[in-house]
Write a structure and sequence with these properties.
The protein is built from eleven helices and 15 strands. The protein is α/β, with parallel strands linked by helices. Strands 3, 4, 5, 6, 7, 14 and 15 form a seven-stranded mixed beta sheet that branches. It has a six-stranded parallel beta sheet with strand order 10-9-8-11-12-13, with helices on both faces. It has a two-stranded antiparallel ribbon with strand order 1-2. The chain is globular, with a radius of gyration of 20 Å. The N terminus is likely disordered.
Length: about 325
């Protein structure tokens, strides 16, 4: 290999980028500039990247966020520290990390390398591989921040989780159980055994039963569905209870009705948070939290991953496997 060729490879990386905002097939493999870690940043060689609904919603419409000259989706990453920028003391090259950097701006997880602030990452739990670790950050942080920080979950409370078998839902079930809650989930019948295996105490088949007739006296509702689920969920909450909505805030219930029932409501958006990542890593290491992997595809098949995810039938998470970078 010539010196010129080697220098070019060191300066570039493989990634997947949308040619434009639209259908899954706009995602194509590209060769683009490799990022460099700035002040307080680390450069992570990505081994695996998680795929989340925000990815395909952004790809379809452009959505929010600041995008570079080569737009690169992906917020969930797990990999190895390649280099550290000035001022970084938390990590050294070779350390294994996972995290959700820069949300909602471009993080660039669908690539061989990601550069981001060191404190947007946490040490990867030693008892899981990179595929497992990459499935966790955004979905687990969403569940953690919603249940523990926003709703103030306490042991003994009753928690209703909609879309309980999905990416956020199945992690929320485990987090709630780890904190001593009585957990009720809504899901299709073919996913009931899966959820019970995660610790769910009750499961409601929403295709056959109206959950408002099957569930009562709930302290917290985590709504990952949207639409009229928020309004209907008000009726199953105790006074003083919390409804945490994750999809579009236009689906929030009437504030007057919520006030009449004495129920707290609100829309929650996940934030990068090292303390939350450390708490999640602790649960993983103690065997209290594990991501269910629905599908693993190579980086170049990101379009297939999005098409699969948009069907809305996944159990757990979709993950992209990123092959080792050239020269490593």
């Amino acid at each position: 290999m010539s010196t010129e060729t080697n220098e070019k490879q060191q300066a570039t990386m493989r990634a997947v980028s949308p040619r434009a905002w639209g259908a899954p097939d706009v995602l194509v493999p590209v060769e683009t500039a490799r990022p460099e870690p700035g002040l307080t940043e680390i450069l992570v060689r990505v081994h695996a990247a998680g795929v989340n609904p925000v990815d395909w919603k952004t790809r379809a419409a452009g959505a929010f966020g600041s995008w570079g000259d080569t737009p690169i989706l992906g917020y969930d990453v797990s990999g190895t520290v390649e280099a550290v920028g000035p001022g970084v003391t938390l990590y050294r090259p070779g350390d294994e990390v996972f995290g959700m950097p820069r949300f909602p701006e471009q993080a660039g997880g669908y690539a061989e390398f990601v550069a981001a602030p060191a404190r947007r990452f946490a040490p990867k739990p030693a008892n899981v591989d990179h595929i497992q670790a990459a499935a966790l950050p955004l979905a687990a942080l969403t569940a953690w921040q919603s249940l523990i920080e926003t709703a103030g979950l306490r042991a003994g409370q009753r928690v209703l989780i909609h879309a309980a078998a999905g990416g956020v839902g199945h992690l929320a079930v485990q987090i709630a159980k780890a904190h001593g809650a009585h957990v009720i989930g809504t899901a299709r019948a073919d996913k009931h055994d899966f959820l019970k295996g995660l610790g769910a105490d009750e499961v409601v088949d929403y295709t056959r039963v109206d959950f408002t007739e099957a569930v009562r006296d709930v302290d917290i509702v985590l709504d990952g569905v949207g639409g009229d689920y928020g309004t209907r969920s008000l009726e199953v909450l105790r006074p003083g209870g919390h409804l945490v909505t994750l999809p579009d805030p236009t689906g929030l219930p009437d504030p007057a009705r919520a006030a009449e029932l004495g129920v707290h409501t609100g829309w929650t958006v996940v934030e990068p948070d090292r303390a939350g990542m450390l708490a999640i890593a602790d649960l993983v290491e103690r065997g209290k939290l594990r991501a269910e992997i629905d599908t693993v595809l190579p980086l170049e098949d990101a379009a297939k991953a999005h098409a699969h995810g948009e069907q809305g039938r996944t159990r757990g998470k979709i993950v992209l496997r990123v092959e080792p970078a050239r020269g490593h």
